[in-house]
């Protein structure tokens, strides 16, 4: 099979958020390289494209229920890939992971209730909690021997005041795949303090071959899981996500909130979920992609450590996101953003929205062809080098 990640795919002019959004939203010129929003520059698995083409050919696009075949596909996928068994009827459609998390928090908590997060974490975790007027309780991750770990003392302190915990697993942006022992301790603390665990596992199927994702639902059948094939198969624009909620009472309350917000799938969402999770060709495609992503991650981290050792980056264990500490350059977030966009000519995701501990960080999406990655790295190396020659420092 040909390389998936290193194919040439021109996404400009397709109304791509990642590519065309730079000009439309930020008024940047086309020579700025987009390494930000979390989708990758590849065509989805051919098996999914074929299924969508066949569905489109029917000419029938009316209001659509969540397919029972899609529910079974999700259940069978989790059983086969993650050793978790649950009733297909416990799978609810969601028009995105963030809407799913939002509807769960709205359904299972009240205004003023505490919701725990672990920063630095995906910005919508912060936004949905505060937007729903819940109390945001942060138990920040800590750096231990060059990688991030959970601070269980901080987590327990937060859980004492909380009703619900939003777990990011694998974690965006730091790239950790949590070990079973870590997740077991999370469950222990949640049970002790009567806290509902809601796990965002959208990056689970992009766990690298050298790692092992543990679905927290395998350890506790009262956990709610929100996920989608969107990151793994690069179909985020289809808004084909789902919620797995084994608890009948919780599920009823979530459905009530979803009905209030008129949550229904498109016909193409059903089709994509079924094709992604049942066609063996799609699964083989995914296995190849995760292997290529791990190789690409090692390459990019190696380039940073060899050519820019003063920029600390953390080797991810899943997905295509690299968390990079720019503190050595001595730039405040706004100045760093301006330098990256105007001088380096690359666009990254700034770290501050991920939490206060992300102020000196940027998130880089390396899910693209190698030539583009090399160009971005060369631009960064060159700009730092020019500054060093001019000033005698790496950056001032």
Automatic annotation (TrEMBL):
A UniProt-annotated Pfam family: Aminotran_1_2
Family that this chain belongs to: Belongs to the class-II pyridoxal-phosphate-dependent aminotransferase family. MalY/PatB cystathionine beta-lyase subfamily.
Enzyme nomenclature, EC number: 4.4.1.13
NCBIfam families, alphabetized: C_S_lyase_PatB
Keyword hit for Lyase: yes
Cofactor: pyridoxal 5'-phosphate
Boundaries of every Aminotransferase class I/classII large domain copy: 52-380
Keywords: Lyase, Pyridoxal phosphate
Gene Ontology terms for molecular function: cysteine-S-conjugate beta-lyase activity; pyridoxal phosphate binding
Taxonomic lineage from the root: Bacteria, Bacillati, Bacillota, Bacilli, Bacillales
Official protein name in the record: cysteine-S-conjugate beta-lyase
The encoding gene: patB
EC primary class: lyase
Keyword Lyase: yes
């Amino acid at each position: 099979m040909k390389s998936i990640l290193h194919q040439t795919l021109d996404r400009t002019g397709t109304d791509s958020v990642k590519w065309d959004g730079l000009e439309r939203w930020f008024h940047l010129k086309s020579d700025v390289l987009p390494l930000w929003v979390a989708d990758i520059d590849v065509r989805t698995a051919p098996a999914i494209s074929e299924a969508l083409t066949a569905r489109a050919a029917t000419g029938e696009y009316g209001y659509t229920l969540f397919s029972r075949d899609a529910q079974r596909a999700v259940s069978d996928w989790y059983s086969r890939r993650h050793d978790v068994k649950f009733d297909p009827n416990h799978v609810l459609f969601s028009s995105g992971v963030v809407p799913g998390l939002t509807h769960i928090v709205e359904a299972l908590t009240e205004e003023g209730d505490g919701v725990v997060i672990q920063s630095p974490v995906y910005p919508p975790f912060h936004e949905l909690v505060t937007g729903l007027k819940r109390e945001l309780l942060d138990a920040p991750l800590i750096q231990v021997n060059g990688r991030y770990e959970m601070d269980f003392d901080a987590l327990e302190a937060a859980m004492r005041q909380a009703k619900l915990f939003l777990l990011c697993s694998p974690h965006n942006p730091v790239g950790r795949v949590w070990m079973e022992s870590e997740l077991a301790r999370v469950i222990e603390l949640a049970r002790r303090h009567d806290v509902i665990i809601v796990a965002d596992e959208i990056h689970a199927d992009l766990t690298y071959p050298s790692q092992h994702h543990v679905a927290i639902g395998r350890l506790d059948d009262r956990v709610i899981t929100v996920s989608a094939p969107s990151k793994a198969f690069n179909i985020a624009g289809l808004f084909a996500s789902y919620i797995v909620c084994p608890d009948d009472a919780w599920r009823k309350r979530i459905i009530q909130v979803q009905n209030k917000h008129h949550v229904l799938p498109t016909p193409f969402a059903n089709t994509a979920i079924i094709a992604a999770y049942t066609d063996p060709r799609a699964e083989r495609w995914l296995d190849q992609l995760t292997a290529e992503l791990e190789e690409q991650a090692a390459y990019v981290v190696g380039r940073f450590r060899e050519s820019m050792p003063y920029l600390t980056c953390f080797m991810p264990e899943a997905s295509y996101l690299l968390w990079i500490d720019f503190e050595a350059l001595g730039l405040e977030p706004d100045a760093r953003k301006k330098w990256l966009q105007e001088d380096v000519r690359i666009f990254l995701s700034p770290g501050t929205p991920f939490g206060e501990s992300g102020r000196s960080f940027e998130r880089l999406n390396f899910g693209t062809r190698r030539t583009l990655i090399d160009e971005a790295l060369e631009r960064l190396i060159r700009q730092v080098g020019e500054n060093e020659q001019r000033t005698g420092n790496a950056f001032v």
